[in-house]
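Sequence, structure tokens reproduced for reference:
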Amino acid sequence: MDFFLGGLARGLRLLAGLDPEVYGIGWLSLRVSLSAVVLAALAAVPLGLLIGQRRFPGKRLVVVVFNTLLALPTVVVGLVVYGLLSARGPLGSLEMLYTPAAMVLAQAVLAFPLITALVIAAVTTLDNRVGPTALTLGATRGQAAWTVLKEARFAVLAALAAGFGRVITEVGAAIMVGGNIRHFTRTFTTAIALETSKGDFAQGMALGVFLLVVALAVNLAAHQLQVRWR
């Protein structure tokens, strides 16, 4: 217990002292994860809205597939993205491997099925007359879809927050496609794994505490948006 408390105390001192390496890792992690969520949401929210509102053959199977992908292992995503971006892969010419951009791509793939599945669930529980009523009142299909999205805005925001939580805490894909390069692709989780393996428990605890603070701040911001939108 003394070892744990001592490491926690030293970690908090690193945070209070504005340790540049710790805060640099924090900024990179936040930037990569937020970019990944935005990229995933651009496709996941419209797709979830479409699937949730439309009736079509095989819809139940599609929903089951997205629900299954909620358990998609991060190392599998890392392996697939690594294969695509490696020198022998179809996207090797982009030279994205071991860069923050590769990490954004991998994390976006992770967040995509989660956000899609949650948006489908949110839209499905809405009154199915919202969209048709908007169309009856003269709205275009795009305006009707926007009306449905506004009705489900609290659940959609929660889906985005869940997607952020999913990607900022993952480690497998980040290591595989980012390489855990110091001052370039080292994130919260990869740094925690590295520092703990080196025996630097204080640094690992500092990063762990910082990770929790960042996650709390993002969720508080999402909660404030929900309050303002009521």
Notes: The CA atoms of residues 56 and 152 lie 21 Å apart.
